[in-house]
């Protein structure tokens, strides 16, 4: 029986609603839901962030105590920790009682001379503490028992002072006393709150004022990072005496363009033997990628058939095994399988909801009436108020301003695949300065890199969407090259 366009739309919307409201939603399901929801709503491109918004400048600074935020020890952390940790809240709107939660790990050596780096996870609505710090690039990972930690030898605080913030309010431990804020979240408010957070955090940690500053992240941070960078540049023009020394941005598997991302995904499916040539042809023939119009019933059906054909796998890393729920039993061996344990999110969920952990982190001081989760049910695609279809104008502005701009892609991610990033870069039409070549880490090809005028694009071999989680050694090598402003090495 033929289905009407309305029926198709309703069924598809329902499926995406279920995906986006799963109790224990993770970053994978959140962004996949976002991408498919955006497919159904043809959107007009908004002006660049700097033109759409007057950047909020804090009228008063709520400094707070750095010493009060110092972490003496995290429950279950390994011995002989050689760096200082802080965590706590920074107020971004005193009238609303809105505050963002942060975790800060200083560099393991020479912290006074190392740059300050902010890491942002995406979603939208996912935690930079739970995903970024505790599953990808932070100093500690959680053991299977959900109570103890082990050290990450490829942590990024080997090279920099690493700052993680949970944003917007409603994500993780971040909150607002004005609960209506949760339904008003969007790109603009998130950028403004992140900017105010940073200004106020630097007042609490004045030794980092003037320090070289970089913004890094992944996924929907393809929106967050360029918009925050734009806010900082505007801040610097208004307050040159209090300028933030922004040097560069690096975004992994960056979500930059709704339409190009759809095309890149189905091209990735086909070139990785996940759908047939016939299915790929149906999608490209029936869907209008030129105009971003996917409303035709035959297009929606072709996409749904292709999605069904892909089957049940980890879309964030198509070669990665799925989590076996039985393996999360605390009675199992406490030895981690590897840094990319597919059940890691369960261990982190258990750990961050322990009362003693929250006390050590100075978290949940207001007694939130919900548990910590990797991705918030208060904030997400259903509540998101504004999101430009394309972020390339913001990327172009950063390049033109001389901000070091790197994009990198784990080559096994099908949600924001390297094909989509490459298509976006083609749209920028930047002159190529360094031809595509291999780069090396650990004695092997770590990936491939190409240098454009003002921008570098690198792939990371055998990595999924969460590059530092899947390939920690390669990710750290790439991060070190980024900070140094040099292309990753040709060989060792």
TrEMBL record:
InterPro entries: AB_hydrolase_fold, Peptidase_S10, Ser_caboxypep_ser_AS
Subcellular location: Secreted
EC number of the protein: 3.4.16.-
Signal peptide from the UniProt entry: 1-25
Key words, A-Z: Carboxypeptidase, Disulfide bond, Glycoprotein, Hydrolase, Protease, Secreted, Signal
Record carries keyword Secreted: yes
Any Gene Ontology CC annotation: vacuole
Protein name from the UniProt record: Carboxypeptidase
GO aspect biological process, one term: proteolysis
Family label: Belongs to the peptidase S10 family.
Molecular function terms, GO-annotated: serine-type carboxypeptidase activity
């Amino acid at each position: 029986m033929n289905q009407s366009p309305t029926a198709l739309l309703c069924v598809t919307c329902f499926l995406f609603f279920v995906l986006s409201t799963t109790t224990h939603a993770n970053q994978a399901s959140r962004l996949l839901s976002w991408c498919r929801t955006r497919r159904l709503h043809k959107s007009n491109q908004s002006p660049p962030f700097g033109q759409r918004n007057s950047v909020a400048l804090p009228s008063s600074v709520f400094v707070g105590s750095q010493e009060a935020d110092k972490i003496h020890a995290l429950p279950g952390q390994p011995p002989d920790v050689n760096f200082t940790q802080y965590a706590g809240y920074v107020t971004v709107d005193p009238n609303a009682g809105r505050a963002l939660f942060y975790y800060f790990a200083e560099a393991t050596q020479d912290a006074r001379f190392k740059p300050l780096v902010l890491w942002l996870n995406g979603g939208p609505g996912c935690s930079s503490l739970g995903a970024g710090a505790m599953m990808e690039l932070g100093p500690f990972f959680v053991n299977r028992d959900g109570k103890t930690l082990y050290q990450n030898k490829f942590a990024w605080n080997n090279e920099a002072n690493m700052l993680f913030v949970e944003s917007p309010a409603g994500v993780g431990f971040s909150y607002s006393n004005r609960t209506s804020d949760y339904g008003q979240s969007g790109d603009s408010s998130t950028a403004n709150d992140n900017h105010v957070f940073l200004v106020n955090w630097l007042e609490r940690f004045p030794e980092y004022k003037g320090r070289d500053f970089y913004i890094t992240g992944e996924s929907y941070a393809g929106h967050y990072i360029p918009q925050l960078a734009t806010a900082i540049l505007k801040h610097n023009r208004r307050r040159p005496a209090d300028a933030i020394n922004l040097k560069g941005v690096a975004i992994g598997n960056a979500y930059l363009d709704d339409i190009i991302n759809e095309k890149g995904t189905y091209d990735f499916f086909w070139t990785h033997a996940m759908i047939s040539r016939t299915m790929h042809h149906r999608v490209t023939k029936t869907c209008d990628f030129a105009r971003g119009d996917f409303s035709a019933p035959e297009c929606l059906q072709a996409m749904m058939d292709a999605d069904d054909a892909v089957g049940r796998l980890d879309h964030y890393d198509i070669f990665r095994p799925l989590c076996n729920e039985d393996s999360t039993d605390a009675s199992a061996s406490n030895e981690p399988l590897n840094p990319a344990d597919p059940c890691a999110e369960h261990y982190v969920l258990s750990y961050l909801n322990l009362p003693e952990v929250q006390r050590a982190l100075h978290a949940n001081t207001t007694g939130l009436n919900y548990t910590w989760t990797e991705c918030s049910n208060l904030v997400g695609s259903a509540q998101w108020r504004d999101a430009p279809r394309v972020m390339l104008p913001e990327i172009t502005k950063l390049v033109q301003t001389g901000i070091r701009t790197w994009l990198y892609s784990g080559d096994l991610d099908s949600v924001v695949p390297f094909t989509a990033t490459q298509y976006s870069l083609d749209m920028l039409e930047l002159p190529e300065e360094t031809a595509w070549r291999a780069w090396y880490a650990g004695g092997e090809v770590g990936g491939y890199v190409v240098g454009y005028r003002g921008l570098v694009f690198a792939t990371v071999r055998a990595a999924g969407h969460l590059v530092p989680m899947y390939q920690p050694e390669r990710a750290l090598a790439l991060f070190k090259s980024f900070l140094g402003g040099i292309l990753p090495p040709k060989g060792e």
